[in-house]
Specification:
The protein is α/β, with parallel strands linked by helices. It has 9 helices and 15 strands. The strands form 4 sheets. The protein has a 7-stranded parallel beta sheet, with helices on both faces. A hairpin with a 2-residue loop joins strand 2 and strand 3. Helix 1 packs across helix 3.
């Protein structure tokens, strides 16, 4: 095994090459324990050479802007999120199975689904603790399944390890997804890498995939890839979106629905 300085140089190089490297993968590559990798990452971070994030590390300077908490996000663009949520909930039919992603807009979708008294026999799988609690009043009309995993307090979300284990074994009718960025070439992206990983698995586990995102997310590109545009069936956003934002998405083949804010009082 390399001495610590040589090992850390190699570790820093691996992180730089990969953009984001998981602790478990680094430990396997370097043939050391995960504890040793975490110690080395802490030392390299102290030297200003990389930034540790949940589950791994990335080169310094690649971390996206500070992520808002779920509570902070809920207070922004409330009318837009409510309008998007109502339109998204209208896509759901009784008897379907749904993956409902974490996020402030998808939390609004959860409330909109509960308000639809005509819906029954829904199975909803979510990685959001706040979303599961929002859906609870609809039980037994709805069956609510939580993915499990490690709690991430900022969004009250469940991430790896173990968050995607259940997703490997399900195939649902519809995934309703959130993202912090959507752009024609980059597709849907997310500011947080662990959550982006879960979102990607949701995309792979669903027959239909709808992205619910307010217009402030359009034209934004963040670190974690969620899905290419051809992996999504529809974007539902608000009518504050400009033609310059929407036309490239439509030219790329994505179906886009805009909802009027006037529908929400």
């Amino acid at each position: 095994m390399d001495a610590a300085p040589q090992r850390r140089e190699r570790l820093a190089g691996l992180v730089a090459d990969r953009g984001f490297a998981r602790v478990v993968d680094l430990a396997r590559t370097l043939d050391v324990s995960e504890v040793t990798v975490r110690t080395d990452l802490a030392a390299l971070e102290a030297e200003g050479r990389l930034t540790r994030v949940h589950g791994g590390a990335m080169p310094r300077g690649l971390v996206a802007e500070r992520e808002s908490s779920l509570e902070q996000s809920r207070t922004r663009l409330t009318r837009a999120k409510q309008a998007i949520a109502a339109e998204t909930a209208a896509r759901v039919r009784s008897g379907e199975s749904i993956l409902l992603d974490v996020g402030s807009t998808t939390l609004a979708v959860a409330h909109a689904l509960v308000a639809r008294r005509d819906l029954s026999e829904l199975v909803i799988v979510t990685n959001g603790l706040a979303i599961a609690l929002a859906l609870e009043p609809a039980i037994p009309r709805f069956t609510v399944v939580v993915t499990g995993g490690t709690v991430r307090s900022l969004q009250h979300s469940l991430v790896n390890p173990l968050a995607t284990t259940l997703l490997d074994d399900v195939r649902v009718d519809l995934a309703i997804l959130g993202a912090t960025g959507i752009e024609a070439e980059a597709g849907a992206t997310n500011v947080n890498l662990p959550e982006a990983e879960v979102k990607r698995r949701m995309v792979a586990s669903a027959a239909r995939r709808v992205l619910a995102a307010d217009s402030s997310k359009l034209g934004q590109v963040h670190l974690g890839r969620v899905a290419a545009l051809d992996e999504l069936d529809e974007l539902i956003t608000d009518d504050r979106a400009s033609a310059a934002q929407l036309d490239p998405l439509r030219r790329a083949g994505l179906r886009v629905t805009t909802v009027a804010l006037s529908r929400v009082q």
